[in-house]
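Problem statement: downstream parser choked on a complex file, so we are re-checking the raw output for the guanosine-5'-diphosphate run. The parser issue turned out to be on our end (a line-ending mismatch), but while we're here, posting the original submission so the record is complete.
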Amino acid sequence: MKGFVIKSTGKYSLVKVDKKIYKCILRGNFRLDNNLSNPVVSGDKVEIDFDENQNGVITKIIKRENHFIKKSLKDDKAHIIGSNIDQVLIICSIRKPYTKFIFLDKCIAAAYYYNIKPIIIFNKVDILNSEETQKLKKINNKYSKLGILFLEISALHGVGIDELKKNLLKKRTLFIGNSGVGKSSIINILTKSNQKINDLSTKTGRGKQTTTFSEIFEIDSNSFILDSPGFKDFYFYDIDKNDIKYLFNEFIEIQKECKFNNCLHLEEPDCKIKDNIGDKIWSKRYSSYLSIMNEFN
Ligand code: GDP
Ligand code: ZN
């Protein structure tokens, strides 16, 4: 049977086939790729079978359309957060907690690298003072100019939720963000249930604290959310240092005019990117670029 992985822990996966969910293990002779911390991930399309004891077994992972990977800091291996996705919702907040630009810009860069459309959400607009509201407006403006959909919402007060939902219909959307930004709250509103909190596998009943694996939540039969555990830092796994400059949209045209065509916009002379900082290039974006480049050293 063909199915679809809606959750996968180290030990087992939940595989949905039509309306039924089967708990499956991975076939024993599956060769673990040594550079991979998780061989199966939510979003995977798989083939399953049943052994003599009627236990479900995943026998094949169908080739992924795409995936989103971060480096696992524990062992430097690739940790796949999700597969077969259309877009990634990067959830941020100005306060409680403060989302760093470097985190946001890395997520955007990775999204482009993996061919996934990024969408930026700033949650918790209800707690902002007027100065912070102005600041957010400026940020919104900058990213909107890059052609990225930017939404300001409040999960607590239901602000901007309809607009958000409209953009998730008929899509497979990966949710990522620092813990505490309101990912669970947003999912609960969008799925009109306490799916996330009532997670079967969570004996403590405190779903969000114990979630360490990506998991799928349905908005409707054609639209789903692939929720990932909140993480603080995010490091690239397979993205090359020389490719970073192509993952910053606003650099693409300008950098063609740099003196050296392999210019990395660091110390090189006659660099048009550096010349444009504060003009066509927002200084915060260039700072993120520099920070990313420094992580390779
Ligand atoms: P997660 O860790 O990203 O899943 O975040 P949660 O959904 O658990 O939310 C973390 C905290 O932020 C909780 O106390 C929520 O009630 C609160 N929260 C979520 N959304 C909002 C919002 O729009 N406004 C405010 N003021 N608080 C929110
Ligand atoms: Zn340059």
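For whoever reads this later: Residues 123-124, 126-127, 154-156, 177, 179-185, 208, 230 surround guanosine-5'-diphosphate (ligand 1) (CB under 6 Å).
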